[in-house]
Amino acid sequence: MRYKTIFFDLDHTLWDFESNSNQTLSELITAYNLIDIGIPSEKAFISCYEHINEQLWEDYRKGLIDRLTLRNTRFHKALLEFNINDYELSLKLGEYYLRESPLKKNLFPHALEVLQYLKQRYDLHIITNGFNEVQYIKLEQSNLAPFFKHIITSEDANCKKPEPEIFEYALSLTQSTVSESLMIGDSLQQDIVGARNFGMDQVFFNPQKKIHAEKVSYEIHSLHELKTLL
Ligand SMILES: [Mg+2]
Question: 207 with 226: CB under 8 angstroms?
């Protein structure tokens, strides 16, 4: 096998962001009695929050807003959608979410078993656009940490996927070459196009079998497929 180094994305690739986030939001709705103050249902709040959060992350990725704005705005905006204007409450929700969600442990099916297999054959590292303080907690809590030699965050690299600089940084830190490296991730834009433009082979993790027109080196629908691919 020509590859020696494998870079994994974390959120939505190994760590089941959606399940972990939904679990946290559901707890938060109960803890702060949001139904009593006018949120119609758990489902309505979660879907509203997700939509707003995604938009704010998009703005963050484009450099339009900073991290603090992202964190302090998302719950306020979500509450406002239900005509609840309570900035203090939104800050408390934001703190609860930031504290509790990284402690959640849901991973994608076969994650640990596949990492166990790959670790014996390749050097494994993480490249994530998430923030240090939460990503390290997630990795520890969900037992992913021991599989990875380097955790490369956009914060440490001072650039984000899909920028070529973060891949350059990753290669230099891990002393790898582009031709012997592989990027595995769920985001076509950040992981796949990012790595492809840099000249690195990629595995697109597409559990929902989304239709797309990007040229990818490999595509999988379950992490389990990595055991035959690699
Ligand atoms: Mg991801």
Answer: no
CB atoms within 10 A of CB 43: 10
Question: How far apart are the CA of 83 and the centre of ligand 1, in A?
Answer: 32
Cβ atoms 195, 125 nearer than 8 A: no
pLDDT-based confidence at residue 1 (cuts at 50, 70, 90): low
Burial 65-75 (b: 16+ CB within 10 A, else e): eeeeebbebbb
Ordered by where they begin, the domains of the chain are: 5-15+107-229 (3.40.50.1000), 17-103 (1.10.150.240)
User: The tokens of 127 are what?
Assistant: 């490249």
pLDDT digits (tens, 9 = 90+) for 116-140: 999 999 999 999 998 899 999 999 9
Output the CA 217–ligand 1 centroid distance in Å.
Answer: 17
CA dihedral 215, 200, 155, 58 (to 10 degrees): -10
Point out the least confidently predicted range of 55-69, 144-158, 191-205.
Answer: 55-69
Report the C-alpha gap between 57 and 161 in whole angstroms: 13
Residue 120 C-alpha to ligand 1 middle, in angstroms? Answer: 24
Tell me the catalytic residues: 9
Gap from CA of 162 to ligand 1 centroid (Å): 12
Question: Which letter, b or e, does each residue of 6-26 get, where b requires 16 or more Cβ atoms within 10 Å of its Cβ?
Answer: bbbbbbbbbbbbeebbbbbbe
- pLDDT at site 212: 97
150 φ, ψ to 5°?
-125, 135
